[in-house]
């Protein structure tokens, strides 16, 4: 298992997928260290230790490379969410970027609506995202939402839903600024610690649950996803809307 994991790490390394490669190197090194402990043959132990040392040196090099990219504002990580994959609730996806210094968040998504043919629950998804921000560990004070108006009769439901979220957030000391634009197409989320996350489907990458009493209805980690791509960037200065 250790050899397989390290082999995968090397493949990802060669493909310049450094973030994923680092995780595989670290897992592979841990597995190989367990093998060393269980091996009685001294010659084998020596060979394993040499390999582990090489992998550790490479992992350290990747770590430094990633850190430099962050410093230079060139960091880019891509996560591919497969069709019907589970385990991609908002906490899992965003947690590592929501450090304690995050106090301001920007959400650009044209489809934060009550009911839309392509986005059944996007208002609820946005509410779920806000709940995650309120829970911390970050100390969010301001959320900026840029979206587009729903068409026709859905507009009044959309506005009343957003106003309800706005009022509710106020009870937690969080200000929600809402703006509408008819020309918005991009979907991205930015935090004032420099992280920017672009999701192909915005916050609405979850499939409709099979029923109101089916597993995954309440817990998004258990909800199957639509296929989408998540791109994570880091720049020293998050652009303002």
TrEMBL record:
CDD domains from the UniProt entry: MIT_1, MIT_C
Domain MIT, chain residue ranges per copy: 1-71
Domain of life: Eukaryota
Pfam family, one: MIT
Signal peptide stretch: none
Matches recorded under PANTHER family: MIT DOMAIN-CONTAINING PROTEIN 1
Protein name according to UniProt: MITD1 protein
Organism: Scytalopus superciliaris
Lineage: Eukaryota, Metazoa, Chordata, Craniata, Vertebrata
Gene name linked to the record: Mitd1
């Amino acid at each position: 298992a250790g050899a397989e994991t390290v082999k995968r790490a090397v493949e990802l390394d060669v493909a310049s997928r450094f973030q994923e490669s680092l995780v595989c190197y670290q897992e592979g090194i841990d597995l190989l260290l367990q093998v060393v402990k269980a091996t009685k043959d001294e010659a084998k132990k020596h060979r394993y230790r040499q390999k582990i040392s090489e992998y550790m040196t490479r992992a350290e090099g990747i770590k430094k490379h990633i850190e430099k990219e962050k410093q230079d504002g060139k960091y880019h990580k891509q996560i591919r969410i497969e069709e019907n994959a589970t385990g991609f609730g908002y906490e899992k996806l965003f947690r590592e970027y929501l450090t304690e210094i995050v106090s301001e968040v920007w959400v650009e998504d044209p489809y934060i609506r009550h009911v839309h043919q392509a986005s059944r629950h996007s208002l609820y998804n946005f509410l779920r995202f806000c709940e995650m921000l309120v829970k911390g560990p970050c100390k969010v004070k301001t959320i900026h939402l840029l979206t587009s108006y729903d068409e026709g009769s859905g507009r009044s439901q959309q506005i009343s839903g957003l106003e309800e979220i706005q009022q509710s957030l106020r009870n937690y000391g969080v200000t929600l600024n809402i703006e509408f634009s008819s020309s918005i197409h991009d979907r991205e989320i930015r935090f004032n610690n420099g992280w920017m996350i672009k999701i192909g489907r915005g916050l609405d990458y979850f499939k409709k649950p099979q029923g109101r009493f089916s597993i995954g209805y309440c817990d998004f980690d258990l909800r199957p996803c639509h296929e989408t791509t998540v791109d994570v960037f880091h720049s020293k200065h998050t652009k303002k809307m």
